[in-house]
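Subject — a protein and its fold
Fields — amino acid sequence, C-alpha coordinates
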Amino acid sequence: MPTRAQVVDALRAVIDPELRRDIVTLGMVRSIEIADDGRVSVVVALTTPGCPIRSHFERSVREVVAALDGVREVVVGFDVLTPEEKQRLQQQLGRPQGLPDGTLARVGNVICVASGKGGVGKSTLTANLAAALFAEGHRTAALDADVWGYSIPRMLGVHGRPRVSAERKIVPLVAHGGVRVISIEFFLSERDQAITWRGPMLHKALRQFLEDVDWGELDYLLIDLPPGTGDVSMTLAQLLPQAHFVIVTTPQPAAQSVAKRAAELARRYGLGIAGVIENMSAFIAPDGSRHAIFGSGGGEELADELDVPLLASVPLQPELRSCADEGQPLVLVDPDAPASQAIRQAARGLIAELPPRPILTAQPAESGITGTPLPMAH
Protein backbone atom coordinates (compact mmCIF):
# COMPACT_ATOMS: atom_id res chain seq x y z
CA MET A 1 0.00 0.00 0.00
CA PRO A 2 1.22 3.55 -0.68
CA THR A 3 2.04 5.78 2.24
CA ARG A 4 0.33 9.11 2.83
CA ALA A 5 3.55 10.89 1.82
CA GLN A 6 3.53 9.03 -1.51
CA VAL A 7 -0.06 10.08 -2.17
CA VAL A 8 0.75 13.69 -1.33
CA ASP A 9 3.76 13.59 -3.63
CA ALA A 10 1.61 12.19 -6.45
CA LEU A 11 -0.96 14.96 -5.96
CA ARG A 12 1.72 17.56 -6.67
CA ALA A 13 1.20 16.67 -10.32
CA VAL A 14 -2.37 18.00 -10.20
CA ILE A 15 -2.20 21.61 -11.38
CA ASP A 16 -4.91 24.24 -11.02
CA PRO A 17 -5.09 25.52 -14.65
CA GLU A 18 -6.15 29.02 -13.52
CA LEU A 19 -3.71 29.54 -10.65
CA ARG A 20 -0.96 27.48 -12.34
CA ARG A 21 0.20 25.80 -9.15
CA ASP A 22 -0.32 22.31 -7.74
CA ILE A 23 -3.15 21.63 -5.32
CA VAL A 24 -0.77 20.59 -2.53
CA THR A 25 1.11 23.90 -2.62
CA LEU A 26 -2.21 25.77 -2.81
CA GLY A 27 -3.49 23.99 0.30
CA MET A 28 -6.45 22.49 -1.54
CA VAL A 29 -5.94 18.91 -0.32
CA ARG A 30 -8.39 18.66 2.57
CA SER A 31 -7.86 15.00 3.56
CA ILE A 32 -6.37 11.68 2.48
CA GLU A 33 -7.57 8.29 3.73
CA ILE A 34 -5.89 4.99 2.80
CA ALA A 35 -7.77 1.76 3.51
CA ASP A 36 -6.25 -1.71 3.85
CA ASP A 37 -8.17 -2.96 0.82
CA GLY A 38 -6.41 -0.52 -1.53
CA ARG A 39 -9.10 2.14 -1.51
CA VAL A 40 -7.73 5.72 -1.37
CA SER A 41 -10.08 8.65 -0.65
CA VAL A 42 -8.97 12.21 -1.38
CA VAL A 43 -11.00 15.34 -0.57
CA VAL A 44 -10.12 18.50 -2.52
CA ALA A 45 -11.22 21.93 -1.28
CA LEU A 46 -12.41 24.17 -4.14
CA THR A 47 -12.64 27.96 -4.13
CA THR A 48 -16.39 27.82 -4.84
CA PRO A 49 -19.02 25.03 -4.81
CA GLY A 50 -19.82 25.49 -8.50
CA CYS A 51 -16.18 25.51 -9.64
CA PRO A 52 -16.25 25.13 -13.46
CA ILE A 53 -13.04 23.02 -13.48
CA ARG A 54 -14.21 20.56 -10.83
CA SER A 55 -14.18 17.72 -13.36
CA HIS A 56 -10.55 18.53 -14.18
CA PHE A 57 -9.54 18.03 -10.54
CA GLU A 58 -11.57 14.83 -10.21
CA ARG A 59 -10.04 13.29 -13.33
CA SER A 60 -6.47 14.38 -12.54
CA VAL A 61 -6.55 13.22 -8.90
CA ARG A 62 -7.99 9.88 -9.92
CA GLU A 63 -5.28 9.36 -12.55
CA VAL A 64 -2.21 10.23 -10.45
CA VAL A 65 -3.34 8.31 -7.36
CA ALA A 66 -4.46 5.23 -9.31
CA ALA A 67 -0.97 4.99 -10.79
CA LEU A 68 0.54 4.22 -7.36
CA ASP A 69 1.34 0.61 -6.51
CA GLY A 70 -1.28 -1.13 -4.39
CA VAL A 71 -4.14 1.29 -5.19
CA ARG A 72 -7.27 -0.58 -6.28
CA GLU A 73 -9.84 2.24 -6.14
CA VAL A 74 -9.74 6.05 -5.93
CA VAL A 75 -12.60 8.06 -4.45
CA VAL A 76 -12.50 11.83 -4.99
CA GLY A 77 -14.62 14.12 -2.83
CA PHE A 78 -14.93 17.89 -2.69
CA ASP A 79 -15.20 20.60 -0.08
CA VAL A 80 -15.01 24.42 -0.20
CA LEU A 81 -12.24 26.65 1.14
CA THR A 82 -13.23 28.71 4.17
CA PRO A 83 -13.01 32.54 3.94
CA GLU A 84 -9.84 32.41 6.05
CA GLU A 85 -8.29 29.84 3.71
CA LYS A 86 -9.23 31.95 0.69
CA GLN A 87 -7.54 34.96 2.28
CA ARG A 88 -4.37 32.96 2.94
CA LEU A 89 -4.46 31.75 -0.66
CA GLN A 90 -4.70 35.35 -1.92
CA GLN A 91 -1.70 36.30 0.23
CA GLN A 92 0.23 33.30 -1.06
CA LEU A 93 -0.49 34.33 -4.66
CA GLY A 94 0.61 37.90 -3.96
CA ARG A 95 -2.82 39.39 -4.61
CA PRO A 96 -4.11 42.43 -2.72
CA GLN A 97 -5.55 41.50 0.64
CA GLY A 98 -9.15 42.14 1.54
CA LEU A 99 -10.43 44.94 3.69
CA PRO A 100 -9.32 45.30 7.32
CA ASP A 101 -11.20 43.12 9.79
CA GLY A 102 -14.42 44.72 10.92
CA THR A 103 -14.75 47.12 7.96
CA LEU A 104 -18.08 45.64 6.87
CA ALA A 105 -18.80 43.77 10.10
CA ARG A 106 -22.34 45.14 10.25
CA VAL A 107 -23.14 44.23 6.64
CA GLY A 108 -24.83 40.85 6.33
CA ASN A 109 -24.51 40.18 2.58
CA VAL A 110 -22.57 41.89 -0.21
CA ILE A 111 -24.02 41.33 -3.68
CA CYS A 112 -22.16 42.50 -6.79
CA VAL A 113 -24.43 43.03 -9.80
CA ALA A 114 -22.36 42.37 -12.91
CA SER A 115 -22.65 41.98 -16.65
CA GLY A 116 -20.20 41.15 -19.38
CA LYS A 117 -21.31 44.08 -21.54
CA GLY A 118 -23.11 47.38 -21.28
CA GLY A 119 -26.66 48.13 -22.32
CA VAL A 120 -28.34 45.17 -20.61
CA GLY A 121 -30.02 47.22 -17.86
CA LYS A 122 -27.68 46.26 -15.03
CA SER A 123 -27.92 49.60 -13.19
CA THR A 124 -31.70 49.74 -13.59
CA LEU A 125 -31.96 46.29 -12.05
CA THR A 126 -29.56 47.20 -9.23
CA ALA A 127 -31.66 50.23 -8.28
CA ASN A 128 -34.92 48.28 -8.44
CA LEU A 129 -33.46 45.28 -6.58
CA ALA A 130 -32.32 47.59 -3.78
CA ALA A 131 -35.79 49.12 -3.60
CA ALA A 132 -37.42 45.68 -3.71
CA LEU A 133 -35.24 44.31 -0.90
CA PHE A 134 -36.05 47.39 1.18
CA ALA A 135 -39.76 46.96 0.43
CA GLU A 136 -39.45 43.39 1.71
CA GLY A 137 -38.42 44.84 5.07
CA HIS A 138 -34.64 44.51 4.81
CA ARG A 139 -31.97 47.10 5.54
CA THR A 140 -30.45 47.79 2.14
CA ALA A 141 -27.82 50.00 0.51
CA ALA A 142 -26.55 50.57 -3.03
CA LEU A 143 -22.94 51.37 -3.89
CA ASP A 144 -22.46 52.81 -7.37
CA ALA A 145 -19.10 51.31 -8.39
CA ASP A 146 -19.61 52.08 -12.09
CA VAL A 147 -17.28 55.03 -11.70
CA TRP A 148 -17.27 56.04 -15.35
CA GLY A 149 -20.96 55.48 -16.00
CA TYR A 150 -22.43 56.34 -12.59
CA SER A 151 -26.23 56.39 -12.75
CA ILE A 152 -27.56 54.97 -9.46
CA PRO A 153 -28.21 58.44 -7.93
CA ARG A 154 -30.43 59.40 -10.84
CA MET A 155 -32.26 56.09 -10.85
CA LEU A 156 -32.92 56.26 -7.09
CA GLY A 157 -33.65 59.98 -7.19
CA VAL A 158 -31.05 61.05 -4.62
CA HIS A 159 -28.47 63.82 -5.08
CA GLY A 160 -26.41 65.98 -2.76
CA ARG A 161 -23.30 66.00 -0.65
CA PRO A 162 -22.82 63.44 2.14
CA ARG A 163 -21.88 64.72 5.57
CA VAL A 164 -19.28 63.30 7.89
CA SER A 165 -20.08 61.74 11.25
CA ALA A 166 -18.30 62.51 14.52
CA GLU A 167 -16.21 59.37 13.87
CA ARG A 168 -14.99 60.88 10.57
CA LYS A 169 -17.02 58.47 8.48
CA ILE A 170 -18.95 59.42 5.35
CA VAL A 171 -22.69 59.10 5.96
CA PRO A 172 -24.59 57.73 2.92
CA LEU A 173 -27.49 59.66 1.46
CA VAL A 174 -30.90 58.00 1.83
CA ALA A 175 -33.41 57.34 -0.97
CA HIS A 176 -37.10 56.43 -0.69
CA GLY A 177 -37.20 56.39 3.07
CA GLY A 178 -34.37 53.98 3.78
CA VAL A 179 -32.15 52.83 0.88
CA ARG A 180 -28.66 54.11 1.65
CA VAL A 181 -26.65 55.24 -1.37
CA ILE A 182 -23.05 56.17 -2.16
CA SER A 183 -21.80 57.20 -5.60
CA ILE A 184 -18.85 59.07 -7.04
CA GLU A 185 -21.41 61.65 -8.21
CA PHE A 186 -21.80 62.89 -4.63
CA PHE A 187 -18.16 64.01 -4.56
CA LEU A 188 -17.94 65.79 -7.92
CA SER A 189 -18.18 69.53 -8.50
CA GLU A 190 -20.64 68.93 -11.36
CA ARG A 191 -23.30 66.23 -11.49
CA ASP A 192 -22.40 64.88 -14.96
CA GLN A 193 -18.65 65.44 -14.74
CA ALA A 194 -16.54 62.96 -16.73
CA ILE A 195 -14.21 60.66 -14.77
CA THR A 196 -10.82 59.96 -16.35
CA TRP A 197 -9.14 57.98 -13.58
CA ARG A 198 -6.90 54.99 -14.15
CA GLY A 199 -6.43 51.77 -12.20
CA PRO A 200 -4.57 52.94 -9.05
CA MET A 201 -6.92 55.90 -8.49
CA LEU A 202 -9.97 53.70 -9.01
CA HIS A 203 -8.65 51.16 -6.53
CA LYS A 204 -8.05 53.85 -3.92
CA ALA A 205 -11.49 55.42 -4.41
CA LEU A 206 -13.33 52.10 -4.19
CA ARG A 207 -11.43 51.12 -1.09
CA GLN A 208 -12.42 54.46 0.46
CA PHE A 209 -16.07 53.81 -0.42
CA LEU A 210 -15.89 50.58 1.57
CA GLU A 211 -13.60 51.60 4.45
CA ASP A 212 -14.59 55.21 5.10
CA VAL A 213 -18.37 55.02 4.65
CA ASP A 214 -20.54 54.40 7.70
CA TRP A 215 -22.86 51.86 6.10
CA GLY A 216 -24.41 51.08 9.46
CA GLU A 217 -26.24 47.82 10.00
CA LEU A 218 -27.29 46.29 6.68
CA ASP A 219 -28.86 43.07 5.52
CA TYR A 220 -27.81 43.70 1.89
CA LEU A 221 -25.22 45.92 0.23
CA LEU A 222 -25.72 45.90 -3.54
CA ILE A 223 -22.74 46.99 -5.64
CA ASP A 224 -23.40 48.12 -9.20
CA LEU A 225 -20.27 47.05 -11.11
CA PRO A 226 -19.22 48.56 -14.44
CA PRO A 227 -19.72 46.28 -17.44
CA GLY A 228 -16.93 43.90 -18.32
CA THR A 229 -14.11 42.46 -16.24
CA GLY A 230 -11.78 45.45 -15.85
CA ASP A 231 -9.98 47.14 -12.97
CA VAL A 232 -13.05 47.98 -10.87
CA SER A 233 -14.51 44.48 -10.95
CA MET A 234 -11.16 42.85 -10.20
CA THR A 235 -10.46 45.26 -7.32
CA LEU A 236 -13.80 44.57 -5.68
CA ALA A 237 -13.43 40.81 -6.19
CA GLN A 238 -10.10 41.00 -4.36
CA LEU A 239 -11.36 43.26 -1.57
CA LEU A 240 -14.58 41.33 -0.90
CA PRO A 241 -13.77 37.60 -0.64
CA GLN A 242 -17.21 36.81 0.82
CA ALA A 243 -19.28 38.65 -1.80
CA HIS A 244 -21.69 36.99 -4.21
CA PHE A 245 -22.30 37.92 -7.84
CA VAL A 246 -25.59 38.31 -9.66
CA ILE A 247 -25.09 38.08 -13.42
CA VAL A 248 -27.36 40.18 -15.67
CA THR A 249 -27.87 39.23 -19.30
CA THR A 250 -30.43 39.59 -22.06
CA PRO A 251 -31.93 36.64 -23.94
CA GLN A 252 -29.63 37.28 -26.90
CA PRO A 253 -27.01 34.50 -27.32
CA ALA A 254 -24.25 37.06 -27.89
CA ALA A 255 -25.06 38.77 -24.58
CA GLN A 256 -25.24 35.41 -22.83
CA SER A 257 -21.76 34.38 -23.96
CA VAL A 258 -20.29 37.73 -22.90
CA ALA A 259 -22.08 37.65 -19.53
CA LYS A 260 -20.38 34.33 -18.86
CA ARG A 261 -17.08 36.21 -18.62
CA ALA A 262 -18.35 38.12 -15.58
CA ALA A 263 -19.16 34.77 -13.97
CA GLU A 264 -15.68 33.51 -14.79
CA LEU A 265 -14.21 36.56 -13.03
CA ALA A 266 -16.21 35.78 -9.89
CA ARG A 267 -15.14 32.16 -9.84
CA ARG A 268 -11.52 33.00 -10.56
CA TYR A 269 -11.47 34.89 -7.27
CA GLY A 270 -13.42 32.21 -5.42
CA LEU A 271 -16.65 34.21 -5.15
CA GLY A 272 -20.09 32.65 -5.19
CA ILE A 273 -22.67 33.30 -7.91
CA ALA A 274 -26.13 33.82 -6.45
CA GLY A 275 -27.90 33.55 -9.78
CA VAL A 276 -28.71 35.01 -13.18
CA ILE A 277 -31.29 37.66 -14.07
CA GLU A 278 -32.48 37.82 -17.66
CA ASN A 279 -33.52 41.37 -18.55
CA MET A 280 -35.54 42.49 -21.59
CA SER A 281 -36.93 38.97 -21.91
CA ALA A 282 -40.06 39.74 -23.96
CA PHE A 283 -42.28 42.68 -24.80
CA ILE A 284 -45.92 42.23 -23.85
CA ALA A 285 -48.15 44.22 -26.20
CA PRO A 286 -51.42 45.84 -25.05
CA ASP A 287 -53.34 42.97 -26.65
CA GLY A 288 -51.44 40.49 -24.47
CA SER A 289 -49.23 39.09 -27.23
CA ARG A 290 -45.57 38.45 -26.41
CA HIS A 291 -42.74 39.53 -28.70
CA ALA A 292 -39.23 38.16 -28.11
CA ILE A 293 -37.41 41.21 -29.49
CA PHE A 294 -34.00 40.15 -28.17
CA GLY A 295 -34.52 36.41 -28.60
CA SER A 296 -35.38 33.94 -25.87
CA GLY A 297 -33.80 31.43 -23.53
CA GLY A 298 -30.40 33.06 -23.08
CA GLY A 299 -30.79 33.62 -19.35
CA GLU A 300 -31.94 30.07 -18.67
CA GLU A 301 -29.12 28.63 -20.77
CA LEU A 302 -26.54 30.71 -18.90
CA ALA A 303 -27.98 29.71 -15.52
CA ASP A 304 -27.90 26.04 -16.52
CA GLU A 305 -24.35 26.35 -17.78
CA LEU A 306 -23.21 27.98 -14.54
CA ASP A 307 -25.35 25.60 -12.43
CA VAL A 308 -27.00 28.51 -10.60
CA PRO A 309 -30.66 29.58 -10.36
CA LEU A 310 -32.37 31.82 -12.89
CA LEU A 311 -33.67 34.38 -10.42
CA ALA A 312 -36.06 36.08 -12.85
CA SER A 313 -36.83 36.92 -16.45
CA VAL A 314 -37.74 40.60 -16.50
CA PRO A 315 -40.02 41.56 -19.42
CA LEU A 316 -39.24 44.52 -21.64
CA GLN A 317 -41.46 47.26 -20.23
CA PRO A 318 -41.07 50.97 -21.13
CA GLU A 319 -42.14 52.06 -17.64
CA LEU A 320 -39.09 50.35 -16.12
CA ARG A 321 -36.88 52.75 -18.07
CA SER A 322 -39.01 55.88 -17.67
CA CYS A 323 -39.37 55.44 -13.91
CA ALA A 324 -35.61 54.99 -13.58
CA ASP A 325 -35.05 58.24 -15.48
CA GLU A 326 -37.38 59.96 -13.02
CA GLY A 327 -35.66 58.52 -9.94
CA GLN A 328 -38.67 56.41 -8.98
CA PRO A 329 -38.03 52.64 -9.12
CA LEU A 330 -40.90 50.85 -10.84
CA VAL A 331 -41.09 48.27 -8.04
CA LEU A 332 -42.24 51.11 -5.75
CA VAL A 333 -44.34 53.07 -8.25
CA ASP A 334 -46.26 50.08 -9.62
CA PRO A 335 -45.54 46.87 -7.67
CA ASP A 336 -48.02 44.93 -9.79
CA ALA A 337 -46.40 45.74 -13.14
CA PRO A 338 -45.00 42.65 -14.91
CA ALA A 339 -41.40 43.91 -14.66
CA SER A 340 -41.91 44.78 -10.97
CA GLN A 341 -43.24 41.32 -10.20
CA ALA A 342 -40.23 39.71 -11.89
CA ILE A 343 -37.75 41.90 -9.99
CA ARG A 344 -39.54 41.25 -6.70
CA GLN A 345 -39.30 37.53 -7.50
CA ALA A 346 -35.53 37.97 -7.97
CA ALA A 347 -35.30 39.82 -4.66
CA ARG A 348 -37.17 37.05 -2.85
CA GLY A 349 -34.87 34.50 -4.49
CA LEU A 350 -31.84 36.36 -3.16
CA ILE A 351 -33.37 36.51 0.31
CA ALA A 352 -33.96 32.75 0.24
CA GLU A 353 -30.45 31.99 -0.99
CA LEU A 354 -28.64 34.64 1.08
CA PRO A 355 -30.80 35.18 4.17
CA PRO A 356 -29.97 38.04 6.54
CA ARG A 357 -27.42 36.82 9.05
CA PRO A 358 -26.81 38.00 12.61
CA ILE A 359 -24.70 41.15 12.73
CA LEU A 360 -23.62 43.55 15.43
CA THR A 361 -25.90 45.68 17.58
CA ALA A 362 -28.20 48.04 15.78
CA GLN A 363 -27.37 51.64 15.13
CA PRO A 364 -29.91 54.14 13.78
CA ALA A 365 -29.47 54.99 10.12
CA GLU A 366 -28.21 58.53 9.64
CA SER A 367 -29.11 60.81 6.77
CA GLY A 368 -28.49 64.36 5.73
CA ILE A 369 -26.51 66.30 3.16
CA THR A 370 -24.93 69.05 5.24
CA GLY A 371 -21.45 69.28 6.61
CA THR A 372 -17.99 68.85 5.11
CA PRO A 373 -17.41 65.61 3.19
CA LEU A 374 -14.16 63.71 3.36
CA PRO A 375 -11.93 64.28 0.33
CA MET A 376 -12.04 61.56 -2.27
CA ALA A 377 -8.96 59.84 -3.67
CA HIS A 378 -6.67 61.96 -5.84
About this structure: The longest strand covers residues 272-284. The chain has a mean pLDDT of 83. Residues 4-92 form a domain with the GMP Synthetase; Chain A, domain 3 fold (CATH 3.30.300.130). The chain has twelve helices and 14 strands.
